[in-house]
Amino acid sequence: MLWINFKRVIKAGFVNFFRNSWVSVATVLIMVVTLSIIGTLIFGKAVLSSVLLQLQDKVDITVYFKTDAGEGDIFSLRDYLAKLDEVKEMQYISRDEALAAFRGRHAENNLIIQSLEELGDNPLGASLNIKAKDPEQYESIARFLESGSFSIIDKINYRQNKVVIDRLSNILLASKRLGTGISLFFAFIALLVTFNTIRLAIYTSKEEIKIMRLVGASNRYIGSPFIVEGVLYGFISAIVTIFLFYPLTFWLGPLSEKFFGGINIFHYYLTNFFQMFLILLVVGVLLGTVSSWIATRRYLNA
Amino acid sequence: MIYFDKVSKVYSDTSIALEDVSFAIDQGEFVSIVGQSGAGKTTLLKLFLAEEKPTSGSVFFESLDVHSLRRRDIHKLRKKIGVVFQDFRLLHTKTAYENIAFAMQAAGKTDEDIKENVPQVLEVVGLLEKSFHFPSELSGGERQRVAIARAIVNRPDVIIADEPTGNLDPLNVQEIMGLFKKINELDTTVILTTHNKDIINSLGKRVITLEKGRVARDDKKGKYVI
Asked: The pTM is what?
């Protein structure tokens, strides 16, 4: 009995879906818009996160040594730092290397090259570039170096860089929050629109529902096909949306890579295809089911 | 079998639909309920179908107090009653066949039962060749015949017909009434409301006359007297 009813309800849901094809198409379209907004939200979050990560990766501490600092002293400091837990890697640039790099950078500029020649001596000090395992740990490394016991240190560039980087990541974090807020707002509106579209679709069946009650159908038997329809709306919309993102991200991928650096949303789409599809599917089906359920319940109890 | 016990239905002080109505209907009777518009005929049927609750009194179907049913259990009562309305009330998104099949599905009949019975009743009402037409593709008389087929397909104990001929021309009226007589001959109780004097007079069955919400007459072999 249960099985027969189940089969009939599924069949009735499908038949209703295809017989009311215009209503179905309209509902699916609205739901595609909703799911696209949610999909865009996911992409946006991925892009911003990757940009933030990259920015954090740009943070480092460079220690410039006095020109008269002996390499032996520098190395002993380096070896000491290497033992610290916080330090991930270090790069030592000797005075000669620094000069070579400087010359390379300014090869075009005769004035600078000439001044260097006239100076005769190498004016540049050696430097040590330190990367921490965690951005939070720069503060303690910087404090350790600044504590003053190292007479060979000329200057540490952490403080200047930090201000800029902090400001940038603050801007990014704020825009991430703002973006999430705005997207959530739009997603909410889209959800409301979809919910009301489904309600309207069922409103057209108001009389039918009354008649079904009169000929002795149970509330569950009347309502279930509408739920099936809701599930169908969600399912089809999720499929349409995920495939809509293929050409869209394909086109936007290189652009996003150039603009934000690092992440190509087309690759992101491909690698996270199933995860994304699952999210869209769950949201779509849930939205369809809940809307149908709420809408039919009203007329069944009327 | 059906028993109205001092039933009153008051919508408001100025609108009293039924007042202290009592009567009993036996199995296999053909009862016409007549009266002017607003006399309470439709309210009476609505109370019996548990579409509305009485203000006082109670309605029994067999031993069941109709209004003691919970909302979600009302469908169990309605499965035992076939209904036919003036405005047909067919499911317009379903074909004639599906409309009838739906009533059987709702009653939990098997697919085999449905395949066997639906063509049978369609043949009884003379619409077998129009099985797969949608209501919009049928004439008024044909729609009413589909509605009757739907009402009888589950072999209910009672058929309720609320002005079933109100929207039909004289020829169709005769055909439809012929169907109801046939149904009644098979020992199904028929309760009919109508305005049509000729129908009542030619039936020669029991007539309950309502006037301003009260039972004015109850004649075993009644005529239309208002």
From this structure: 0.74
* Residue ranges of chain B whose CB lies within 8 Å of a chain A CB: 49, 51, 71-72, 74-81, 83, 89-93, 102-103, 105-108, 110-111, 150, 154
Instruction: Report the candidate in A60, A76, A61, A59 with the shortest Cα–Cα distance to residue A152.
Output: A76
Contact list, A213 vs chain B (CB under 8 Å): 74-75, 78
User: Rg of chain B over CA atoms, in angstroms?
Assistant: 17
CA nearest neighbour of A57 among A126, A128, A110, A133? A133
Nearest CA in chain B to A19: B93
- A87 and A133 in contact (C-beta within 8 Å)? yes
* Judgement on whether residues A147 and A172 belong to the same structural domain of the protein: no
Which CATH number do you get for residue A135? 3.30.70.3040
Which letter, b or e, does each residue of B199-224 get, where b requires 16 or more Cβ atoms within 10 Å of its Cβ? bbeebebbbbbbeebbbeeeeeebeb
Cross-chain Cβ contact B89/A214 below 8 Å: yes
Does the structure show a pLDDT above 70 at A268? yes
Under the banding of pLDDT at 50, 70 and 90, the label for residue A148 is low
Q: How far is A266 from chain B (nearest CA, A)?
A: 44
Q: Which domains does chain B carry? A: 1-79+195-226 (3.40.50.300)
Q: Is A219 on the interface with B (CB under 8 A)?
A: yes
CA distances from A222 to B72, B115, B194 (A): 12, 21, 31
My answer on whether A232 and A89 are in the same domain is: no
- CB neighbours of B223 closer than 8 A, spacing ≥ 6? B200, B201, B207
The residue type found at B84 is: V
Whether residues A200 and A263 share a domain: the answer is yes
Q: What is the mean pLDDT of chain A?
A: 82
ipTM attached to this prediction: 0.84
Residue B24 in this model has a pLDDT that exceeds 90:
yes
The H helix count followed by the E strand count for chain B is: 7, 10
User: Does residue A163 lie in a domain region?
Assistant: no
pLDDT at A302 over 70: no
Last residue of a domain, one of A122, A151, A180: A151
Pairing of strands B158-162, B189-194: parallel
Residue B25 backbone dihedrals phi, psi, to 5 degrees: -125, 130
Distance CA(B8)–CA(B53), nearest Å, equals 10
Coil, helix or strand for B13?
coil
H or E element at residue A193: helix A158-203
Number of domains in chain A: 2
Query: ∠ CA A215-A218-A220 to the nearest 5 degrees?
Result: 140
Lowest mean pLDDT: which of A77-81, A133-137, A253-257, B76-80? A133-137
B91 CA: distance to closest CA in chain A (Å): 6
Find the radius of gyration of the CA atoms of chain A. Answer: 32
